[in-house]
Structure of ABC-type quaternary amine transporter:
Amino acid sequence: MAFLELQELTKSFGKTRAVERISLGVERGEFLTLLGPSGCGKTTVLRLVAGFEQPDAGHILLDQEEITTRPANRRPMGMVFQSYALFPHMTAEQNVAFGLRLRRLPPALIRQRCEELLALVGLAERARSYPHQLSGGQQQRVALARALAVEPKVLLLDEPLSALDAAVRVTLREEIRRIQQQLGMTVIYVTHDQEEALAISGRIAVMARGRLEQLGTPEEIYRRPRTVFVAGFVGASTRLSARLERAVEGRCRLDGILLRVPPQPELSDGSAVLLVVRPELVTLCQLNEASGAAADGGGQRQGQENVLLGTVELRTFLGAVTRFRVRAAGGQLFTVDLPGLQAGTLVPGQRVRLSFPPEACLVLPLEETGSGVTALPVPEWPAGTTGQPGPEREPQPEHA
Ligand SMILES: Nc1ncnc2c1ncn2[C@@H]1O[C@H](COP(=O)(O)OP(=O)(O)OP(=O)(O)O)[C@@H](O)[C@H]1O
């Protein structure tokens, strides 16, 4: 049994089923993140663990003890909220000392503990500052120190960084991870930000509509999403609706083009599937406009698999990579990330050869209904980008 066990937790608010039969175990010293879109029930799970809400059904066990109905003030938990919730009339030190004073610890011990904790969160110099004299990031550090002061067995963090600006968010998330590892703290962290979840977590529990979609390490969630929802929610990807022709051999038909994918022995021939391809696993090669040959001379290379022709529609500089949106001849939209120099001079309107190895394709079965397969979500695209419409002359697909 795990250190903290959630068993079949269910909670409704009126007609809203906020949490539905959530079961998961958090190991001692683990950093587990609940990740999902707004309204999926993350905060409700956290509040059930903290004891601020009572489940309609299910059990919570901590260190093998049932705590499902134990009041919040008798659970050994610390909580940090999105809004820093510091006492405004108390200094940083007094805020951190609050819980220790309630426990009537000797003043010298309280002082020493506050000093240690403020040093741990990098605020040793600001012990006498009031919240209004501190930045948002510094206030959240105080809130973290205050939550840690009472030595909780589990630290619960509810979107603690979402009110902060991007640079502070990144610094503070690294700090939180460092402190968690230094103290060997058990943490449940709630966020809707998939990048943050991938960066900070030991394991991630992806939630949708009150249910647990997938539980795994960041690498597992990113590389091997098990559901269409997880594939679409975590990380950028190209998602293509296709049909398996020969499942055992890994052959798939995408709008008349035969693609090779990893063998799918557990699926049957003719199954509707979703192909998921991460943007960094696709390569682009500029085509020479006059001859239609690739700039590297390999446009029609014999035997190369999963090659499509297309046109660049958007180019977005993202720093370490440049992201392209490429419209393939069959109309499919691909998201492609090229590092630094490889992005070269590719601009919207240019014709390209697009390719990806079979191993880059993740194959997820799609549920078929009477009216067709599950509708595909539109691929996300960074906000604020601009692009030109593709050229009138569409390139022809290369047929396998
Ligand atoms: N006290 C409440 N009364 C009524 N409905 C509630 C209450 N708390 C949550 N809900 C509903 O339960 C569902 C799950 O809410 P919850 O806050 O757990 O989601 P969340 O994933 O944390 O979302 P967000 O990231 O927006 O906070 C939502 O539909 C929400 O409106």
Remarks:
- Confidence is low (pLDDT under 50) at residues 296-302, 370-400.
